[in-house]
Sequence to fold (371 residues):
Amino acid sequence: MKKKIGILLNTSWYIYNFRKNLILELIKKGYEVHTIAPLDDYSIKLEELGCTHHHLEMDSKSKNPISDLQLYKRIKNVLSEINPKVLLNFTIKPNIYGTLAASKLNIHCVNNVAGMGTLFTEGLLARTLFKGLFKISQKKASTVFFQNPDDFEELTKNNIVNKNIAELLPGSGVNLEEFPYIPLSQKKKINFLLIARMIYPKGIVELVEASKILRNKGYDFQVKLLGELGVNNPNAITKEDLEVLCSPHYITYLGKTDDVKSVIQNCDIVVLPSYYREGTPKSLLESLGTGRPIITTDMPGCKETVIDGVNGFLCKPKSTEDLSIKMEQILNCKFDELLKMGEESRKLAVNKYDEKIVISKYVNAINNCLK
Fold:
Protein backbone atom coordinates (compact mmCIF):
# COMPACT_ATOMS: atom_id res chain seq x y z
CA MET A 1 0.00 0.00 0.00
CA LYS A 2 1.30 3.47 -0.90
CA LYS A 3 2.19 5.78 1.97
CA LYS A 4 0.09 8.93 2.08
CA ILE A 5 1.48 12.45 2.17
CA GLY A 6 -0.80 15.42 2.92
CA ILE A 7 -0.16 18.99 1.77
CA LEU A 8 -2.12 21.70 3.60
CA LEU A 9 -2.30 25.28 2.37
CA ASN A 10 -4.68 28.24 2.22
CA THR A 11 -5.21 28.11 -1.59
CA SER A 12 -5.06 25.45 -4.27
CA TRP A 13 -3.49 28.11 -6.51
CA TYR A 14 -0.51 28.34 -4.15
CA ILE A 15 -0.03 24.56 -4.00
CA TYR A 16 -0.08 24.22 -7.78
CA ASN A 17 2.12 27.20 -8.58
CA PHE A 18 4.68 26.77 -5.79
CA ARG A 19 4.73 23.02 -5.06
CA LYS A 20 3.85 21.35 -8.35
CA ASN A 21 7.29 19.85 -8.94
CA LEU A 22 7.56 18.63 -5.36
CA ILE A 23 4.22 16.85 -5.83
CA LEU A 24 5.37 15.27 -9.09
CA GLU A 25 8.57 14.04 -7.43
CA LEU A 26 6.64 12.53 -4.49
CA ILE A 27 4.25 10.75 -6.88
CA LYS A 28 7.25 9.52 -8.89
CA LYS A 29 8.71 8.07 -5.67
CA GLY A 30 5.52 6.11 -5.06
CA TYR A 31 3.72 8.27 -2.51
CA GLU A 32 -0.03 8.91 -2.56
CA VAL A 33 -0.39 12.69 -2.38
CA HIS A 34 -3.45 14.37 -0.88
CA THR A 35 -3.83 18.15 -1.18
CA ILE A 36 -5.98 20.06 1.31
CA ALA A 37 -7.11 23.62 0.53
CA PRO A 38 -10.17 25.67 -0.40
CA LEU A 39 -11.56 24.92 -3.86
CA ASP A 40 -10.50 27.23 -6.66
CA ASP A 41 -9.67 26.96 -10.37
CA TYR A 42 -6.44 25.11 -9.54
CA SER A 43 -7.99 22.31 -7.48
CA ILE A 44 -8.77 20.40 -10.68
CA LYS A 45 -5.21 20.96 -11.93
CA LEU A 46 -3.93 19.32 -8.76
CA GLU A 47 -6.14 16.31 -9.47
CA GLU A 48 -4.71 16.22 -13.00
CA LEU A 49 -1.20 15.96 -11.52
CA GLY A 50 -2.30 12.80 -9.77
CA CYS A 51 -3.30 14.16 -6.34
CA THR A 52 -6.50 13.53 -4.43
CA HIS A 53 -7.84 16.96 -3.49
CA HIS A 54 -9.88 17.70 -0.37
CA HIS A 55 -11.83 20.92 0.04
CA LEU A 56 -11.20 22.80 3.27
CA GLU A 57 -13.03 26.02 4.06
CA MET A 58 -10.46 28.54 5.35
CA ASP A 59 -10.28 32.30 5.82
CA SER A 60 -6.56 32.91 6.14
CA LYS A 61 -7.08 36.56 7.16
CA SER A 62 -9.62 35.98 9.94
CA LYS A 63 -8.46 36.83 13.48
CA ASN A 64 -11.62 35.50 15.14
CA PRO A 65 -10.62 32.82 17.72
CA ILE A 66 -13.97 31.02 17.35
CA SER A 67 -13.48 30.85 13.58
CA ASP A 68 -9.94 29.53 14.10
CA LEU A 69 -11.18 26.87 16.55
CA GLN A 70 -13.67 25.73 13.91
CA LEU A 71 -10.85 25.65 11.34
CA TYR A 72 -8.80 23.43 13.67
CA LYS A 73 -11.73 21.01 13.96
CA ARG A 74 -12.24 20.94 10.16
CA ILE A 75 -8.55 20.22 9.60
CA LYS A 76 -8.64 17.44 12.18
CA ASN A 77 -11.69 15.88 10.51
CA VAL A 78 -10.05 15.94 7.06
CA LEU A 79 -6.82 14.45 8.44
CA SER A 80 -8.79 11.72 10.23
CA GLU A 81 -10.40 10.82 6.90
CA ILE A 82 -7.12 10.79 4.91
CA ASN A 83 -4.80 9.47 7.68
CA PRO A 84 -1.52 10.54 6.02
CA LYS A 85 1.84 9.46 7.43
CA VAL A 86 3.29 12.96 6.96
CA LEU A 87 1.64 16.37 6.60
CA LEU A 88 3.42 19.25 4.83
CA ASN A 89 2.18 22.64 6.09
CA PHE A 90 2.70 26.04 4.46
CA THR A 91 1.68 29.57 5.62
CA ILE A 92 0.75 30.65 9.14
CA LYS A 93 -2.63 29.04 9.85
CA PRO A 94 -1.81 25.62 8.33
CA ASN A 95 1.49 25.69 10.24
CA ILE A 96 -0.35 26.34 13.50
CA TYR A 97 -3.67 24.50 13.25
CA GLY A 98 -2.49 21.80 10.85
CA THR A 99 0.32 20.88 13.24
CA LEU A 100 -1.91 20.95 16.33
CA ALA A 101 -4.53 18.76 14.63
CA ALA A 102 -1.93 16.35 13.20
CA SER A 103 -0.24 15.92 16.58
CA LYS A 104 -3.53 14.65 18.04
CA LEU A 105 -3.62 11.99 15.29
CA ASN A 106 0.08 11.01 15.54
CA ILE A 107 0.82 12.43 12.08
CA HIS A 108 4.33 13.80 11.47
CA CYS A 109 4.54 17.42 10.31
CA VAL A 110 7.07 19.15 8.06
CA ASN A 111 6.41 22.88 8.20
CA ASN A 112 7.54 25.77 6.03
CA VAL A 113 7.91 29.34 7.30
CA ALA A 114 7.45 31.40 4.14
CA GLY A 115 7.83 34.83 5.72
CA MET A 116 6.55 35.97 9.08
CA GLY A 117 4.60 39.07 8.09
CA THR A 118 1.68 38.39 10.43
CA LEU A 119 3.80 37.59 13.46
CA PHE A 120 5.85 40.74 13.11
CA THR A 121 3.43 43.34 11.77
CA GLU A 122 0.01 42.76 13.39
CA GLY A 123 -1.24 44.65 16.45
CA LEU A 124 0.09 43.68 19.87
CA LEU A 125 -2.81 41.42 20.87
CA ALA A 126 -2.93 39.49 17.57
CA ARG A 127 0.87 39.30 17.44
CA THR A 128 1.09 37.92 20.99
CA LEU A 129 -1.65 35.36 20.36
CA PHE A 130 -0.16 34.14 17.06
CA LYS A 131 3.35 33.92 18.50
CA GLY A 132 2.08 31.90 21.44
CA LEU A 133 0.14 29.48 19.25
CA PHE A 134 3.02 29.28 16.79
CA LYS A 135 5.47 28.39 19.56
CA ILE A 136 3.20 25.69 21.00
CA SER A 137 2.49 24.15 17.59
CA GLN A 138 6.04 24.16 16.23
CA LYS A 139 7.30 22.18 19.22
CA LYS A 140 5.17 19.35 17.83
CA ALA A 141 6.66 19.42 14.31
CA SER A 142 9.33 17.03 13.04
CA THR A 143 11.01 19.63 10.79
CA VAL A 144 10.52 23.37 10.37
CA PHE A 145 11.95 24.83 7.17
CA PHE A 146 12.74 28.54 6.88
CA GLN A 147 12.97 30.45 3.61
CA ASN A 148 15.32 33.19 4.80
CA PRO A 149 18.05 33.46 7.47
CA ASP A 150 16.43 36.40 9.32
CA ASP A 151 13.32 34.40 10.20
CA PHE A 152 15.49 31.40 11.08
CA GLU A 153 17.61 33.45 13.51
CA GLU A 154 14.66 35.38 14.97
CA LEU A 155 12.49 32.38 15.79
CA THR A 156 15.21 29.97 16.91
CA LYS A 157 16.98 32.61 19.01
CA ASN A 158 13.72 33.36 20.85
CA ASN A 159 13.02 29.62 21.24
CA ILE A 160 9.79 29.87 19.26
CA VAL A 161 11.16 27.03 17.11
CA ASN A 162 13.66 24.47 18.41
CA LYS A 163 16.94 24.93 16.55
CA ASN A 164 17.51 21.15 16.36
CA ILE A 165 14.48 20.72 14.08
CA ALA A 166 14.97 23.96 12.11
CA GLU A 167 16.55 24.04 8.67
CA LEU A 168 17.18 26.80 6.13
CA LEU A 169 15.93 26.46 2.54
CA PRO A 170 16.83 28.58 -0.50
CA GLY A 171 13.30 29.96 -0.64
CA SER A 172 10.87 27.80 -2.59
CA GLY A 173 13.50 27.40 -5.32
CA VAL A 174 13.18 27.93 -9.06
CA ASN A 175 12.89 25.36 -11.82
CA LEU A 176 15.91 26.30 -13.95
CA GLU A 177 14.60 24.33 -16.93
CA GLU A 178 11.19 25.97 -16.81
CA PHE A 179 12.84 29.38 -16.41
CA PRO A 180 15.87 29.19 -18.73
CA TYR A 181 18.39 31.98 -19.16
CA ILE A 182 17.22 34.42 -21.84
CA PRO A 183 19.76 37.23 -22.40
CA LEU A 184 18.49 40.79 -22.37
CA SER A 185 17.76 42.30 -25.76
CA GLN A 186 18.73 45.89 -26.43
CA LYS A 187 15.73 48.25 -26.62
CA LYS A 188 15.11 51.97 -26.91
CA LYS A 189 13.16 52.00 -23.63
CA ILE A 190 13.85 50.05 -20.45
CA ASN A 191 10.86 48.12 -19.12
CA PHE A 192 10.65 47.82 -15.33
CA LEU A 193 8.40 44.98 -14.12
CA LEU A 194 6.83 44.43 -10.70
CA ILE A 195 5.26 41.01 -10.04
CA ALA A 196 3.15 40.80 -6.88
CA ARG A 197 -0.33 40.74 -5.48
CA MET A 198 -1.70 44.27 -5.70
CA ILE A 199 -1.28 45.17 -2.03
CA TYR A 200 0.35 48.29 -0.61
CA PRO A 201 3.21 46.57 1.33
CA LYS A 202 4.67 45.35 -1.97
CA GLY A 203 5.82 48.93 -2.55
CA ILE A 204 3.61 49.69 -5.54
CA VAL A 205 2.93 53.30 -4.52
CA GLU A 206 6.66 53.84 -3.91
CA LEU A 207 7.44 52.51 -7.38
CA VAL A 208 4.89 54.83 -8.99
CA GLU A 209 6.19 57.86 -7.08
CA ALA A 210 9.84 57.02 -7.85
CA SER A 211 8.90 56.70 -11.53
CA LYS A 212 7.34 60.17 -11.49
CA ILE A 213 10.56 61.63 -10.06
CA LEU A 214 12.60 60.08 -12.86
CA ARG A 215 10.16 61.01 -15.63
CA ASN A 216 10.31 64.61 -14.38
CA LYS A 217 14.07 64.40 -14.82
CA GLY A 218 13.54 63.50 -18.47
CA TYR A 219 14.11 59.73 -18.40
CA ASP A 220 12.01 57.68 -20.84
CA PHE A 221 11.01 54.17 -19.65
CA GLN A 222 7.99 51.97 -18.97
CA VAL A 223 6.70 50.41 -15.74
CA LYS A 224 4.50 47.31 -15.82
CA LEU A 225 2.58 45.80 -12.90
CA LEU A 226 1.62 42.12 -12.93
CA GLY A 227 -0.42 40.37 -10.27
CA GLU A 228 -3.81 39.71 -8.75
CA LEU A 229 -6.11 42.61 -7.93
CA GLY A 230 -8.85 42.48 -5.31
CA VAL A 231 -7.16 39.94 -3.02
CA ASN A 232 -8.52 39.09 0.42
CA ASN A 233 -6.16 41.33 2.35
CA PRO A 234 -6.72 44.44 4.50
CA ASN A 235 -3.87 46.13 2.57
CA ALA A 236 -5.34 45.35 -0.85
CA ILE A 237 -5.30 48.08 -3.50
CA THR A 238 -8.78 48.74 -4.88
CA LYS A 239 -9.52 48.81 -8.58
CA GLU A 240 -10.24 52.53 -8.36
CA ASP A 241 -6.95 53.27 -6.59
CA LEU A 242 -5.01 51.18 -9.08
CA GLU A 243 -6.55 53.11 -11.96
CA VAL A 244 -5.26 56.33 -10.36
CA LEU A 245 -1.79 54.81 -9.87
CA CYS A 246 -1.73 53.74 -13.52
CA SER A 247 -3.02 57.05 -14.89
CA PRO A 248 0.42 58.10 -16.21
CA HIS A 249 0.82 56.62 -19.72
CA TYR A 250 4.14 55.00 -18.80
CA ILE A 251 2.61 52.79 -16.06
CA THR A 252 0.56 49.76 -17.16
CA TYR A 253 -1.32 47.14 -15.16
CA LEU A 254 -1.12 43.79 -16.97
CA GLY A 255 -3.60 41.87 -14.79
CA LYS A 256 -2.70 38.34 -13.71
CA THR A 257 -1.44 35.48 -15.86
CA ASP A 258 -0.40 31.84 -15.75
CA ASP A 259 2.41 32.66 -18.18
CA VAL A 260 4.69 34.68 -15.88
CA LYS A 261 7.73 33.33 -17.71
CA SER A 262 6.90 35.17 -20.96
CA VAL A 263 6.30 38.44 -19.13
CA ILE A 264 9.67 38.21 -17.35
CA GLN A 265 11.42 37.33 -20.61
CA ASN A 266 9.98 40.47 -22.23
CA CYS A 267 11.05 42.84 -19.45
CA ASP A 268 14.47 44.33 -18.69
CA ILE A 269 14.53 44.90 -14.93
CA VAL A 270 12.43 43.32 -12.17
CA VAL A 271 11.56 45.64 -9.27
CA LEU A 272 10.04 44.62 -5.93
CA PRO A 273 10.22 47.45 -3.36
CA SER A 274 8.45 45.33 -0.74
CA TYR A 275 8.41 46.32 2.92
CA TYR A 276 6.60 43.11 3.92
CA ARG A 277 8.34 40.26 5.81
CA GLU A 278 8.65 37.98 2.78
CA GLY A 279 9.82 34.36 2.73
CA THR A 280 11.76 34.59 -0.52
CA PRO A 281 9.51 35.95 -3.28
CA LYS A 282 8.98 33.42 -6.06
CA SER A 283 8.85 36.23 -8.61
CA LEU A 284 12.42 37.24 -7.74
CA LEU A 285 13.66 33.66 -7.96
CA GLU A 286 12.06 33.22 -11.40
CA SER A 287 13.60 36.51 -12.48
CA LEU A 288 17.02 35.35 -11.31
CA GLY A 289 16.60 32.15 -13.31
CA THR A 290 15.65 34.09 -16.44
CA GLY A 291 18.67 36.35 -16.02
CA ARG A 292 17.18 39.70 -15.11
CA PRO A 293 18.79 42.44 -13.00
CA ILE A 294 16.79 43.08 -9.84
CA ILE A 295 16.00 46.07 -7.66
CA THR A 296 14.51 45.14 -4.30
CA THR A 297 14.53 46.27 -0.68
CA ASP A 298 16.98 45.47 2.08
CA MET A 299 14.29 43.37 3.75
CA PRO A 300 14.33 39.74 4.98
CA GLY A 301 13.63 37.39 2.09
CA CYS A 302 14.25 40.04 -0.56
CA LYS A 303 17.82 41.11 0.19
CA GLU A 304 19.18 37.57 -0.25
CA THR A 305 18.34 37.65 -3.97
CA VAL A 306 20.61 40.61 -4.75
CA ILE A 307 24.35 41.07 -4.42
CA ASP A 308 24.28 44.85 -4.34
CA GLY A 309 25.92 46.32 -7.41
CA VAL A 310 26.53 42.90 -8.95
CA ASN A 311 23.18 41.53 -10.14
CA GLY A 312 21.11 44.56 -9.18
CA PHE A 313 20.60 47.06 -6.37
CA LEU A 314 19.14 47.10 -2.87
CA CYS A 315 17.09 50.08 -1.72
CA LYS A 316 15.72 51.20 1.61
CA PRO A 317 12.17 50.02 2.45
CA LYS A 318 9.44 52.68 2.05
CA SER A 319 11.95 55.14 0.55
CA THR A 320 10.69 56.59 -2.73
CA GLU A 321 13.86 58.69 -2.96
CA ASP A 322 16.26 55.75 -2.56
CA LEU A 323 14.25 53.62 -4.98
CA SER A 324 14.42 56.41 -7.57
CA ILE A 325 18.21 56.60 -7.09
CA LYS A 326 18.59 52.85 -7.74
CA MET A 327 16.29 52.99 -10.76
CA GLU A 328 18.31 55.94 -12.08
CA GLN A 329 21.51 53.92 -11.70
CA ILE A 330 19.93 51.23 -13.89
CA LEU A 331 18.81 53.80 -16.45
CA ASN A 332 22.37 55.13 -16.64
CA CYS A 333 23.94 51.69 -17.12
CA LYS A 334 25.32 50.74 -20.50
CA PHE A 335 23.67 47.73 -22.14
CA ASP A 336 26.76 45.57 -21.57
CA GLU A 337 26.58 46.35 -17.85
CA LEU A 338 22.92 45.31 -17.68
CA LEU A 339 23.71 42.15 -19.62
CA LYS A 340 26.44 41.31 -17.10
CA MET A 341 24.02 41.88 -14.20
CA GLY A 342 21.57 39.47 -15.84
CA GLU A 343 24.31 36.85 -16.16
CA GLU A 344 25.13 37.26 -12.47
CA SER A 345 21.45 36.79 -11.59
CA ARG A 346 21.43 33.48 -13.46
CA LYS A 347 24.62 32.37 -11.67
CA LEU A 348 22.99 33.13 -8.32
CA ALA A 349 19.92 31.08 -9.30
CA VAL A 350 22.06 28.12 -10.38
CA ASN A 351 24.37 28.18 -7.35
CA LYS A 352 21.86 28.94 -4.62
CA TYR A 353 18.21 28.68 -5.66
CA ASP A 354 17.85 25.55 -7.79
CA GLU A 355 14.46 23.99 -6.95
CA LYS A 356 16.10 20.53 -6.92
CA ILE A 357 17.83 21.53 -3.67
CA VAL A 358 14.46 22.28 -2.04
CA ILE A 359 12.80 19.09 -3.30
CA SER A 360 15.74 16.99 -2.10
CA LYS A 361 15.49 18.48 1.40
CA TYR A 362 11.76 17.73 1.51
CA VAL A 363 12.29 14.12 0.43
CA ASN A 364 14.93 13.72 3.15
CA ALA A 365 12.64 15.26 5.79
CA ILE A 366 9.80 12.91 4.81
CA ASN A 367 12.12 9.90 4.87
CA ASN A 368 13.28 10.86 8.38
CA CYS A 369 9.64 11.03 9.52
CA LEU A 370 8.95 7.57 8.13
CA LYS A 371 11.96 5.86 9.74
